[in-house]
């Protein structure tokens, strides 16, 4: 009899433990969302959806869960939400996608965000966030997409951002970032899109950009960058768009840019470039758009 009771205990105890853990997680994550709600103004349509009497938040507007009913998607993009994002966001330990873009959010991005260790996609674009980016972004080791364009963010671009090993898409454009582009940008070997345009960045383009062989779009226009253009040494075959306009780049356009054999858009307008436009650039068969005005270029068009 005792053996039989022990058998049932061994069989059913893990299932009971799993069930209790799941319920505990649900209560915790539901509470996190309700705490976040205290500092946010949501549309009236959310009042029936985000209801504290519901046993689970998995069917709430903008929320998606995995098979264990843990929150994996927090997507409130384009709902016209106002207010501030609270530090409780860091309690969503399993969330893989946070998209709060196209709203009216203000205040700083919580430092606790880096505790969302499973995060793959982050989009805070087109809001009114202020202050700097969190300094320990390298903790987001699974992050692929980081978009915060069109806010009022300031300070330097942290080196930690480019310490994220599998980062592919970065858009920091239309903010007030200052300082130089971190040398660590070359560590992101999987980078495909890098938009740093319309900020107040200074210094030179890091030569480490040459290490980004998968890069397809690079836009650093409308900053205060200077120096020579270091690109085109044979590792830019995937580059489609290169926009460097509205800076203070000087010297000649490098002939090695002809190695960027897939280039479609080449924009270096409003700089201090001189010399001829290399024939190797004109020979790029895929080239569709080229802007070179307001420089000191010479020579004849082919």
UniProtKB/TrEMBL annotation:
Name by which UniProt lists this protein: Leucine-rich repeat-containing N-terminal plant-type domain-containing protein
GO cellular component, one term: membrane
Domain of life (superkingdom): Eukaryota
Matches recorded under InterPro entries: At_inactive_RLKs (IPR050994), Leu-rich_rpt (IPR001611), LRR_dom_sf (IPR032675), LRR_N_plant-typ (IPR013210)
Membrane topology: Single-pass type I membrane protein
GO function terms (MF aspect): ATP binding
Ranges where the Leucine-rich repeat-containing N-terminal plant-type domain occurs: 28-66
Location (main, coarse): membrane
This protein's UniProt keywords: ATP-binding, Glycoprotein, Leucine-rich repeat, Membrane, Nucleotide-binding, Receptor, Repeat, Signal, Transmembrane, Transmembrane helix
Spans through the membrane: 6-28
Subcellular location: Membrane
A Pfam family the protein falls into: LRRNT_2
């Amino acid at each position: 009899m005792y053996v039989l009771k022990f058998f049932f205990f061994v069989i059913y105890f893990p299932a009971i433990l799993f069930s209790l853990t799941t319920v505990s997680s649900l209560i915790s994550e539901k509470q996190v969302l309700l705490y976040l709600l205290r500092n946010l103004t949501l549309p009236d349509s959310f009042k029936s959806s985000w209801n504290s009497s519901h046993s689970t938040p998995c069917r709430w507007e903008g929320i998606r869960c995995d098979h264990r009913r843990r929150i994996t998607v927090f997507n409130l993009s384009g709902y016209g939400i106002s207010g501030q994002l609270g530090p409780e966001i860091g309690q969503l330990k399993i969330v893989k996608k946070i998209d709060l873009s196209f709203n009216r959010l203000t205040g700083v991005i919580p430092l606790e965000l880096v505790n969302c260790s499973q995060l793959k996609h982050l989009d805070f674009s087109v809001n009114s966030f202020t202050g700097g980016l969190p300094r320990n972004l390298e903790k987001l080791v699974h992050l692929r997409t980081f978009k915060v364009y069109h806010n009022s963010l300031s300070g330097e671009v942290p080196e930690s951002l480019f310490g994220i090993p599998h980062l592919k898409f970065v858009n920091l454009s239309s903010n007030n970032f200052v300082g130089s582009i971190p040398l660590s940008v070359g560590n992101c070997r999987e980078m495909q899109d890098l938009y740093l345009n319309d900020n107040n960045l200074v210094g030179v383009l890091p030569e480490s950009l040459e290490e980004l062989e998968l890069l397809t779009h690079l836009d650093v226009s409308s900053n205060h960058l200077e120096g020579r253009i270091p690109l085109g040494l044979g590792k830019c075959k995937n580059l489609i768009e290169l926009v460097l306009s509205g800076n203070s780049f000087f010297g000649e356009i490098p002939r090695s840019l002809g190695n960027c054999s897939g280039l479609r858009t080449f924009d270096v307008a409003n700089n201090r470039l001189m010399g001829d436009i290399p024939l190797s650039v004109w020979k790029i068969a895929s080239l569709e758009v080229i802007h070179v005005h307001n420089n000191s270029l010479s020579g004849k068009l082919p």
